[in-house]
Design the sequence.
């Protein structure tokens, strides 16, 4: 089971980055979560729930980070990458940046819920377990987050021309 922990590193990092918007902090949180998981691996009773257990540890590491350090960096202070790419890649990068910024502006609870459900594919019940909150709270946070994102990302809404939009729900 120790070997399988390493396979979760990219997913843990991706989630930590989506919460923190800081590559070094995401790496630090991922490393801390994996270290804690290695130490407590004997506590896993059902190997099929290993992913939920790991994401729960990551969520706790994220909370601990805020307990240690209250002020949070403003998303506007984060440097944006500007690569010389063809127009389409540039538009995709702009979209990704816009979505990240929109997600970054959400309150922490909404940001956690939407990234776990829509980006990582966890069920509401699994997110409830990971964040240790009632399932109704998960649902209300998702509803508010999606409503806020829809308002902030209105320009990317699919057009009536039949063109496929850029934003979609990942289930």
Sequence:
């Amino acid at each position: 089971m120790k070997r399988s922990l390493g396979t979760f590193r990219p997913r843990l990092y991706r989630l930590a980055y989506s919460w923190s918007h800081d590559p070094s902090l995401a790496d630090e949180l991922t490393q801390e979560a994996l270290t804690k998981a290695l130490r407590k691996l004997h506590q896993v009773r059902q190997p099929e729930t290993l992913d939920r257990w790991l994401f729960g540890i990551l969520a706790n590491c994220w909370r601990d980070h805020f307990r240690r350090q209250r002020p949070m960096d403003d998303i506007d202070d984060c440097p944006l990458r500007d690569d010389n790419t063809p127009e389409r890649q540039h538009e995709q990068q702009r979209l990704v940046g816009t979505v990240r910024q929109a997600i970054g502006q959400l309150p922490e609870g909404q940001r956690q819920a939407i990234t776990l459900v829509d980006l990582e594919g966890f069920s509401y019940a699994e997110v409830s377990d990971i964040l240790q909150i009632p399932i109704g709270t998960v649902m209300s946070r998702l509803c508010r987050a999606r409503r806020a994102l829809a308002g902030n990302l209105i320009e990317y809404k699919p057009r009536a021309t039949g063109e496929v939009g850029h934003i979609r729900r990942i289930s």
